[in-house]
């Protein structure tokens, strides 16, 4: 199955359209994005493969998707924990955090130790608004993830990758190739550099909006919020 990619600028504009024209709130979009991330985790790493899931969340909405996913994973019977080194100011993130704390999902400080004991990692650090060189503390965090012996699912883009141009040429992230990637709404151009399992999620697009941005409407099956799509040997979708 092939799906067209969307640039970072169009992805931001598409979200704006959904909220300003389509009647959506950010909470709703993030809830469906995070729900699809949790379903992708289930498909890749079902609970009988190990229940300890470490969700690493960044300061923006990509991190918000991770917080939502962690909540769903707790309800599915996993034992998620969250590493959230730089919480964003938006009150939405504070509410998502409270929801996790009331479920007794731990927010951990010792990332290095958590990496050694986790069964699976969700990279919800940066999505389509990432740009430039990694600023502290994220350079070291990405370096630890890429050298850890654990399967990773990246949310929307492998964190540290340029959304257009793919992995950095050197430094943290240069060797980062997650086991799986879930693109939200539509793949981002950096997927051309990606080799691994590839999912699409964010089941809320309408034909009007896919036509406006020249995208394909994924053919989700039944009640699934996530669909696995392929990437060929040359990185084409
Ligand atoms: N339509 C959908 O599918 C939806 C997707 N969602 C998710 O939202 C992100 C995009 O969120 P946004 O808040 O715009 O940005 P990010 O989370 O990618 O990052 C912003 C955050 O990162 C900081 N930052 C940027 N570059 C750097 C750097 N080089 N070093 C350190 N820090 C950096 C920046 O300052 C901000 O704090 C999308 O990918 C989806 O995952 C939504 O949930 C809604 C619907
Ligand atoms: K990410």
From TrEMBL:
Catalyzed chemical reaction(s): (6R)-NADHX = (6S)-NADHX; (6R)-NADPHX = (6S)-NADPHX
Recorded GO CC terms: mitochondrion
Keywords: Cytoplasm, Isomerase, Metal-binding, Mitochondrion, NAD, NADP, Nucleotide-binding, Potassium
Entry EC number(s): 5.1.99.6
Domain spans labelled YjeF N-terminal: 11-217
Molecular functions (GO terms): metal ion binding; NAD(P)HX epimerase activity; nucleotide binding
EC class of the enzyme, as a word: isomerase
Main localization of the protein described in the UniProt heading: cytoplasm
Annotated InterPro entries: YjeF_N_dom, YjeF_N_dom_sf, YJEFN_prot_NAXE-like
Cofactor-binding details, from the entry: Binds 1 potassium ion per subunit.
Cellular localization per UniProt: Cytoplasm; Mitochondrion
Cofactors, names only: K(+)
Residues that hold K(+) according to the record: 62, 123, 159
Entry-linked PROSITE patterns: YJEF_N
Chain residues that bind (6S)-NADPHX: 61-65, 127-133, 156
Function as written in the Swiss-Prot or TrEMBL entry: Catalyzes the epimerization of the S- and R-forms of NAD(P)HX, a damaged form of NAD(P)H that is a result of enzymatic or heat-dependent hydration. This is a prerequisite for the S-specific NAD(P)H-hydrate dehydratase to allow the repair of both epimers of NAD(P)HX.
Family: Belongs to the NnrE/AIBP family.
Protein name stated in the entry: NAD(P)H-hydrate epimerase
Biological source species: Penicillium rubens (strain ATCC 28089 / DSM 1075 / NRRL 1951 / Wisconsin 54-1255) (Penicillium chrysogenum)
